[in-house]
Design a protein that fits this description.
Elements (H helix, E strand, L loop, with lengths): L1 H15 L1 H8 L3 H32 L14 E5 L15 E6 L5 H10 L4 E7 L13 E7 L8 H11 E12 L7 H16 L9 H7 L4 E8 L9 E8 L1
Parallel strand pairs: 1-2, 1-4, 2-3, 4-5
Antiparallel strand pairs: 5-7, 6-7
Length: 246
Amino acid sequence: MADTSILILRACLALLAMPIYLLSFLGLWEPFCKKIFFPFILDRFSVVHERKAKKHKQELFRNLPDFTSPSGELKLLEIGTGPGANFQFYPPGCKVTCSDINPNFQRGLLRNMNKNQHIHYERFLVAAGEDLHQVPSGSMDAIVCTLVLCSVQSVDDTLREVLRVLRPGGAFYFLEHVAADPSSWKYFWQQVCCPTWKLVFCGCCLTREIWKNLDQANFSEVKLQHLSIALPWTPIRPHVIGYAVK
């Protein structure tokens, strides 16, 4: 019965989003979404999410200086930098390499770079999380990834690249929305929204159990916490937050 209800509600949602499905069929939605719609939406969503998640991020990134290399530098790679909402949490003097598969976040990125002059910006790479070949192995002290693993092609391949790029003893910091409890109404609505949500928001998947991928990756230590971030009228309230050490 639940499966039938999900299929019916998915069809209703698809009807409401029919113009987008039509544009997608014609090959017009994806370029428009990547260049205009998604950067516009993410820039505004980041402001809302930041307000709700700020205290959690402050606590998460508090120990970043502990992973400074023996040379005294802290080299950090951010996967999926987007508009640069995390820059404010990085310690002074931190050397940041930004990467994103979508290079169309210039407005928000420049704004946040100008607001956060306490860190040093090394370079910007147009790269997917699964393929960071431009970054040498073992070259980073820390890697940050927030609200990105939901939309990569492969979470496991991305984590393998994270482990390759991190130096031994380096840390991977994450904050990701995830699947809700399978017995909950939240999960029911995630299943209903998933196909249309994924189309509208550049491949963002609502039902990934990212904590399982992290547990199965070859980190020496994983510190992970489940939490709910109050984002009314959205299916992305359940999150995982923490860091993992190589």
